[in-house]
Each structure stands twice: as structure tokens, then as C-alpha cells.
Design a protein that fits this description.
6-stranded mixed beta sheet; 10 helices; ATP-binding; P-loop_NTPase; ABC transporter ATP-binding protein; AAA+_ATPase; 2 domains; alpha/beta; single chain; Rossmann fold; 288 residues; nucleotide-binding
Length: 288
């Protein structure tokens, strides 16, 4: 694997110069029949920034990423990337601006690492371009940057979970977009591979000056790797800001439904959570 940073603090505070873009989500609402998922959500991810979305399952995090990628269209509000309205773009045009890594995807039998990563070039090369034999420079760079170039001819289905996730990250990078959306990239991974993937994302964000919005299930990892946290509750933004300001006992109680304490890592200073017990459930009649 290519060399990773030793810790997120070693990533440059100011990303290297490159093609960065701002992601703006302005008053977005969305719902499915009988259920409102997002209600007037607004947030901005600055060029080259890494922001983590956190909150309980079902609070709208994954839906917000799909809206940001142009896969879904908002009922109200809009999503723009450097001023371009994602809902007004064709699917290919949207895919040239934003790459979305879904939570999971089944391995296609017989597909090699090289063949999967090359699929990320469709938006740029089109159907005729995809018929050309050989990898282009962007595909080669994507595989090299995540350390999977040596596996190029191995079947994806033969890889471990952590290895597959790195290949899927290479697929997203092959789109060569300024904005990268990651939907729980550490799902189903053990602790070692969770750290590998997030350290890799942090390094690539700095090297490529990517604008990154990532959904993370683990609040501790989000606080460690993200510059800013956005906490969703019931389809709305409940808290937003740097981890050291956002991660509080109040956040644990009001957003995650647990009573707990928050400390600080003695070496790096990021927040460390100590959940103690489930918080009382509040309903229209009060607590019970």
C-alpha cells in the first residue's frame, strides 16, 4: 500500500493548490411518500474542506449525499457546486463535478480491479471512449494513489473487505471530480481498516485538494478526522462547527440519545466520547 500519513494532524492545514470547488446546500427539503426526510437543510463545504455528517440512522445523511450528487432532486431548495445547480445537470455532467461512494456495492463476478476502476471514467470518456483498450492516466493515478495498482488484474470478489473499499475509493477518484462524497466508507470494516481508509481519505484530500463530505457512523472517528462536523436530527441541522465545539454531552444526549461525557485526547486534543447510558426518550407528553 502507498505510504499513509501517520495521523490526521500531519495533513497540511492548508491543502495543496489544485482544482477545488465549493459545495453549497441551500434550504433543501426532500421526502418519500408519507415521510419527510430532510427539512430546509443548509450547509456549505468550502473548497478543499473535509466535513463529516453525523447522526442516528434514518436522520437523512445518506439522502443528503444523494441530493448533493444530483442522484435525487430536492423538493425545495437547491444544491450547487461552484454555482452549477446539480438538479439541472445531466447525469454525466453531474458525475464530472461530484463523485459519490455509496455505502456498499456487490462485487460483479469476474470483474477485475482494473475493469472496475475504469468504470469511473465513463462520465469523462463516454460510451465510445470506454471501448478503447488500455487505461488512461487518470485511472492509473487513481489505482496508484490508493495503493491497489499491484492488484489491477485480480478479481474484485477475491479481495478482503478493506481491500475492496480501497478499490471502490479508486473508482470514485477515477471520476476526477473536485468534490468527493463518501457514504459511511468504514461500514463493515474492522478498526485497522477503518483507520486505513480514513487516513487515506485525509491524505488524498490534501494532495488533490478535494472537497470532501463524508457520512460517518462513529462520532469519535468523525471528530478525529474532520475539520467540521454537521449533526443531523430528524432531517434538520442540529449542530455545526469544529469538533471541539460541537462534540459535547448535550450533543450526545440530543442527537444520539445517550447520556455521556466528553474528554480530550491527551496528545492530539480531539474530542473523545464516553457514552454511559441511553438517555430518556422525550415525546409529546414529556420524558418517560
Amino acid at each position: 500500500m502507498s505510504e499513509l500519513i501517520s495521523d490526521p494532524g500531519s495533513v497540511p492545514t492548508d491543502p495543496a493548490p489544485g482544482p477545488a470547488a465549493a459545495l453549497d446546500i441551500d434550504g433543501v427539503s426532500f421526502g418519500y411518500p408519507g415521510r419527510r426526510v430532510l427539512d430546509r437543510v443548509s450547509l456549505r463545504v468550502r473548497p478543499g474542506e473535509l466535513v463529516a455528517l453525523v447522526g442516528l440512522n434514518g436522520c437523512g445523511k445518506s439522502t443528503l449525499l444523494r441530493l448533493a450528487a444530483g442522484v435525487l432532486r430536492p423538493e425545495a431548495g437547491r444544491v450547487t457546486v461552484d454555482g452549477a445547480d446539480m438538479a439541472r445537470l445531466s447525469r454525466r455532467a453531474a458525475a464530472r463535478r461530484v463523485a459519490l461512494l455509496h455505502q456498499s456495492a456487490p462485487a460483479v463476478p469476474g470483474l477485475t480491479v482494473r475493469q472496475l476502476v475504469r468504470q469511473g471514467r465513463y462520465a469523462a470518456r463516454g460510451p465510445l471512449g470506454m471501448l478503447r483498450v488500455g487505461d488512461d492516466a487518470v485511472t492509473v493515478r487513481a489505482m496508484r494513489d490508493v495503493g491497489v495498482e499491484a492488484w489491477a488484474d485480480r478479481p474484485v470478489e477475491a479481495l478482503s473487505g478493506g481491500e475492496r473499499q480501497r478499490v471502490r475509493l479508486a473508482l470514485a477518484l477515477a471520476q476526477d471530480t473536485p468534490v468527493l462524497l463518501l457514504d459511511e466508507p468504514t461500514t463493515y470494516l474492522d478498526l485497522r481498516h477503518q483507520l486505513e481508509v480514513l487516513r487515506l481519505v485525509a491524505r488524498l484530500r490534501a494532495e488533490r485538494r478535494l472537497t470532501v463530505l463524508v457520512v460517518l457512523h462513529d462520532l469519535g472517528l468523525a471528530a478525529r478526522f474532520a475539520e467540521r462536523l454537521v449533526a443531523l436530527r430528524d432531517g434538520r441541522v442540529a449542530a455545526e462547527g469544529p469538533p471541539e465545539q460541537v462534540v459535547t454531552p448535550g450533543l450526545l444526549r440530543e442527537v444520539f440519545g445517550v447520556e455521556g461525557r466528553v474528554g480530550r485526547d491527551p496528545e492530539r486534543g480531539w474530542p473523545v466520547c464516553y457514552p454511559d447510558r441511553p438517555a430518556p426518550i422525550e415525546n409529546e407528553n414529556g420524558f418517560h
